Amino acid sequence: FQHYYITNNLRDLKMEEYLKNGKDIYDTYCTSTETRPIMLPKAPQHTYIDVYPDEGESGPSFKDDKKRQLDYETEVVVYRALEELLDEDINVLHSFEYTHRQYRLCDKSHVRKGCVACRKTLNNREGECDFLIIGKNYFVIIEVKNMTSFSEAKQQNPGLDEQQHKLGLQGSYKKSEKQRERMVKLIRSIENSTNISHFTAYPNFTKGSRAELTLESDQLSSVIFKEDTEDFASWWKGNVTDFHTEEALNCDFQAKHDKVRNMLLAIWCTDNKGHC
Q1: DSSP H or E segment with residue 127
Q2: pLDDT tens for residues 41-90?
Q3: Cβ distance 47 to 69 under 8 Å?
């Protein structure tokens, strides 16, 4: 019993430290007299290829680097779309990650006994999302995937197999769905009564090819297509602003929302060694 008390007391102290750090971050970097998005970081983290190899000399490492660069460029499309939501008072966190240690700090019900992650991968990345958006009374999670329709992909790769491409599309959505669900679990472990919306963005995929995704109607409603990113203010209003009304802004709800906001900001600014 004494060990249980000490463990929980230490957890509460650590939680208070995170919440204080998060509030300091919010007060310092996340408020403005203007109604506009505050982007953190101010420019998307860059991945690029310094030197292109001569023709015929590119190997697996170069191909991996090139894929990362294309993925980065796809994320930039969404970053810029969010940045241009000039009438929205939101904070946008790019590349949000958290460790198992941070998850169990948030989840009071987490049982350490028998947990493999607690024993082996405590400081490893447990979950992530490309964009975490903090609004006045809601949170939005966006995962970004660099995929195109089969016809467009075939232009870049004439030998591409249609079935292989279809499986790749299905796999990309399932992976994004899993990442989104992990983020929702993290947020709800801080406060369960939290407004959360989550989406998968395909900035290079047109609505006309959506049948290739082979998704159910409720899954399709969580997809952000190329056309949506091109008129993102309208999409945002219909899928986020109008969906999360101001009615929820009572004192008790706002206190819980602010707690989640501060905790997420602190996690975003803390490395896997616990340094903020």
Answers
A1: strand 125-134
A2: 876 665 554 444 455 555 556 566 667 777 788 999 999 999 999 899 99
A3: yes
131-162 residue pLDDT tens: 999 999 999 999 999 998 888 888 888 888 88
Does the predicted TM-score (pTM) go above 0.85?
yes
266 dihedral zone (left: phi>0; alpha: psi -120 to 50; beta) = alpha
**CA-based radius of gyration for the chain:** 20
First CA to last CA distance, the chain: 32
What's the rounded Cα separation, in Å, for the pair 95 and 143? Answer: 10
Residue with tokens 């991945």: 47
Sign (positive/negative) of CA torsion 206, 207, 210, 213? positive
Residue 46 β-bridge partners = none
- How far is the C-alpha of 48 from the C-alpha of 173, rounded, in Å? 25
- 263 vs 19, 20, 101, CA distance in Å? 5, 9, 14
Give dist(CA 157, CA 164) in Å, integer.
12
Q: Is 95 left (phi over 0), alpha (psi -120 to 50) or beta?
A: left
Task: With CA atoms as reference, report the closest residue to 276 among 267, 140, 216.
Answer: 267
Triad 261, 249, 24: Cα angle to 5° = 30
Full strand arrangement of the beta sheet holding 91-99: 38-40, 91-99, 125-134, 139-144, 196-201, 223-224
Question: Residue 240: which H helix or E strand, with range?
Answer: none
pLDDT digits (tens, 9 = 90+) for 251-267: 888 999 999 999 999 99
